[in-house]
Design brief:
Two copies of one chain form a homodimer.
Chain A lengths: L7 H10 L3 E2 L19 H14 L1 H4 L6 E4 L14 H29 L2 E7 L10 H23 L5 E7 L5 H7 L10 H13 L4 E4 L1 H13 L1 H10 L10
Parallel strand pairs in A: 1-2, 2-3, 3-4, 4-5
Helix pairs in contact in A: 1-7, 2-4, 4-5, 8-9
């Protein structure tokens, strides 16, 4: 699962590349209104965002808005589904519905700048991973919604790109803490991952697959040999280390 | 989009094949407790189901439960996304969260019978279709949740099969009313579709693709030529007939 903050290198890259982006940033930039959302909980991020937009973009974002990066997630367990429907409902609010709400709020500015929306998802949002049923549901929902919206933008000649980022296992602190006891793979570096996310948004790509070889192979197998892929995914986990809570 | 009721032929087939199934049925069988959910709204279906389960399966389902068919949907528009996040939240309750809740309620009985769960979805739950963003989000969420759960069942040696049905354009009354003005294809027959749904559940298949050639081709293109598929999907609609409401 991806982290909710971006490493230092991304901030530098972003500041060198463009000055108007929103949605994910380091907690130590509280004085920059366009870069202060990474430090606060996702639900508050959404409120802040909506208040800022409502208060007038010109006061706080004098240069407008070029890129909306949607990256936050709520806590979910990495374990067998425990039957708690309320947990899925809550997770949908943070991981999915808030992404839609932020898109709705930002869209007038993004249309003006002919900007980009970057939606950070996961391989668990594309194929069947065990122990992530609530999380997978929310990430699949992002794919369904934003892929449909991208089609409508093209038909409607709205020049706002939508990039869906499909990430494998990344060495962010949160991801390693959550799944390292159960995953045998070596995680990919978060710095390179973050740069790839930025590049894919700037280049207005349809999807980012990172690490490209791993994610690309899994997605190809998904359709040509789904049962084989399911079996591979099950074998990728140290099931004996998953303890029911 | 699929209908919420099953045609007569399915009922006959079901009664000939097995006597213990639940979740979708014709409105004219109100006296059969295992076959009366098709006639009432989806939210009430869930309540009825939970009350019935809580009241004791032996009183109402003396033979237990072999198959849970999840097929109901709430109303959604076929049009450009209108920015209404509340509509998506409500649709998630009916099209997705109620499926999870019914599965949780039925699971003890299904484990006992080593039964099957059949989840009816759509090609809009697998690939990017324009004008269906809220609906697609809910159908993608089903894929994410139930595909992950299937993996956990296999790992946990729970012998309950999960079949995800990916349906194309079917000639049910609801589907034809909703999209015939905008779709150029000829819909596939609902009777054959319903039989394929039943067969796929009985045969404990991973997924049903119906009509198989159309859906199979689209899913293959999705990964090997996604931009081409997107373009095909956009051209499949009479966009001039989509009027913003």
């Amino acid at each position: 699962m991806e982290d909710t903050t971006f490493p230092e290198v991304v901030v530098k890259e972003a500041e060198n590349t463009w000055g108007r982006w929103w949605g994910a940033a380091p907690p130590h930039s509280p004085t920059h209104p366009a870069l202060h959302f990474g430090a606060i909980p996702a639900t508050k991020k959404l409120l802040c965002f909506e208040v800022l937009v409502a208060n007038s973009k010109h006061a706080l974002l004098p240069g407008g808005l070029d890129v909306l990066i949607l990256n936050h997630i709520g806590y979910s367990y990495f374990n067998y589904f425990n039957g708690d429907v309320g947990h899925i409902r809550k997770l949908l609010e943070t991981n999915f519905l808030s992404y839609v709400a932020m898109t709705v709020s930002a869209l007038p500015m993004l249309k003006e700048s002919e900007g980009s929306i970057v939606v950070v998802s996961s391989i668990a949002g594309k194929t069947a991973i065990p122990f992530t049923a609530p999380y997978s549901a929310t990430k699949f929902a992002l794919d369904g919604f934003f892929s449909s919206l991208r089609q409508e933008f093209i038909i409607d000649k709205v020049n706002v790109s939508i990039t869906l980022c499909i990430l494998g296992y990344i060495n962010t602190e949160n991801a390693v803490r959550a799944v390292s006891h159960a995953i045998q793979d070596t995680p990919a570096p978060k710095e390179e991952c973050a740069l790839e996310i930025i590049k894919s948004g700037v280049l207005r790509r349809r999807e980012l697959h990172y690490p490209s070889r791993t994610v690309g192979s899994l997605l190809l197998l998904r359709d040509i040999a789904p049962d084989f892929l399911d079996s591979l995914m099950r074998r990728a986990y140290k099931v004996e280390n998953i303890r029911r809570t």
